[in-house]
Write a structure and sequence with these properties.
This protein is mainly α. The protein is built from 4 helices and no strands. The model has no long low-confidence stretch (mean pLDDT about 90).
Length: about 80
């Protein structure tokens, strides 16, 4: 049995949809471009980004991408 260290984030910290949105953010897409690509409203994108920021403890899009990459939640 492998034990995680206390600093390792759980792989399920972000939902699949949150990871998907964050991957689009990492491609420098706007909220509207993300909404169009995923077939969701811009309000849903904004809500998902708020949750992502909250879960990762950041306040900016760039900070969210950097934190997610650092934690191994999304690929570079």
């Amino acid at each position: 049995m492998t034990r995680r260290s206390p600093v390792d984030p759980p792989r399920d910290l972000l939902t699949a949809r949150e990871k998907e949105v964050l991957e689009h953010v990492a491609r420098d897409q706007t909220n509207q471009e993300i909404a169009d690509a995923l077939g969701i409203s811009i309000y849903t994108v904004k809500a998902l980004l708020r949750k992502i920021h909250e879960k990762l403890g950041v306040s900016t899009r760039g900070g969210a991408v950097a934190a997610a990459i650092r934690k191994g939640l999304i690929a570079k």
